[in-house]
């Protein structure tokens, strides 16, 4: 088995982060974990649909970053199981792409981790949400505000670094500048550069 690489994609809602992750997964032929992570975590033991509303949702306010706070909430239970599953996959040594789930923090001890944050211009994100979900502009703006607020609270519930803080990532990139394909190409070049650097050592 070659060097393990873990591409972690954190993203603003409407930035195209999921699509970018899909394209990188295809380019490098790595499995990808995002919404389907729930199926992997729970398998046949539970009705997965009942957990979807808790996926990437903030922990209760009393929750501690050290996992010593409220431990009986559905949000905490799901987050902990997803984190443990990602660590298990990382410990197996295979390469993969993961979207969100605090992965840039949860998997920070792995040398092959490449944490990336995707952001975007507000007008571009609004248009993407309008097109994708058939929303009005007002509905899209409300969805952006809500989802990004929840993602920030979720991330900051479990991580030491702040969501979107450039110091927590190798690359922070505005996908509105180059478009999705251009952003993918730039990230592909960066990732290949990391891989080549590793080969030279």
Structural features, described:
The protein has helices spanning 17-28, 37-42, 74-91, 103-106, 122-133, 137-158, 175-200; strands at 6-11, 32-33, 96-99, 113-119, 171-174. The model is unreliable at 62-70 (pLDDT under 50). The chain is built from seven helices and five strands. The protein has a single domain, classed as Rossmann fold, CATH 3.40.50. Helix 5 (122-133) packs across helix 6. Helix content is 50%, strand content 11%. The protein is of the alpha/beta class and 201 residues long. The chain has a five-stranded parallel beta sheet, covered by helices on one side. The two termini are 17 Å apart.
Which class of secondary structure composition applies to the elements?
Answer: alpha/beta
Main sheet: strands, sense, barrel? 5 strands, parallel
Specify the number of helices.
7
Instruction: Please state the overall shape, judged from the principal axes of the Cα atoms.
Output: globular
Mean pLDDT: 90
CATH class: Alpha Beta
What level of helicity do the residues show? 40-55%
Set down the secondary structure blueprint.
Elements: E1 6-11, H1 17-28, E2 32-33, H2 37-42, H3 74-91, E3 96-99, H4 103-106, E4 113-119, H5 122-133, H6 137-158, E5 171-174, H7 175-200
Parallel strand pairs: 1-3, 1-4, 2-3, 4-5
